[in-house]
Amino acid sequence: VMFFSAWFWSFFKHALYPMGENSPAVDGVWPPEGIETFNPWELPLINTLILLLSGAAVTWAHHALVHGIKRSQIKMGLIICIALGALFTVFQAYEYSHAAFGFSGNIYGANFFMATGFHGLHVIIGTIFLTICLIRVYKGDFTPEQHLGFEAAAWYWHFVDVVWLFLFAAVYIWGG
Fold it and tell me: Shortest CA distance to 86 belongs to which of 136, 50, 132?
């Protein structure tokens, strides 16, 4: 939470208070002149929908577990969530490879890649966490009464979803 707060702070500080020639945002313009940002209504929106659907899938799996519904429902929800998490990561890598700006070229690029990259790392960690939960579901480790690891993974995944919504709104829509 603190890392994301710091990157949001940096992003908004430079976006709202560009200070002329000597500032990272040259000539008081944000994003800096010459930066071609991503259209938020293309791949970033698709990634947003992917994460929202993955959140629904993990909630479905959790609901099936808590209410003792067939294990196949738990497995399917987790498989869908994991696949969507992996797809998000692939699309994020594709977006990075097509960025018209770099990490070290300006403050916009540095903020963009640090915030979205750190989020992407959390998506990868969450995908691994959920994969471990799926393995444990196959092994029969979780019951409706005892599933703390699954609960933690679901909460973590929802945190990743919420952070992305803020990133999408701030970096792609407002800041671009």
Answer: 50
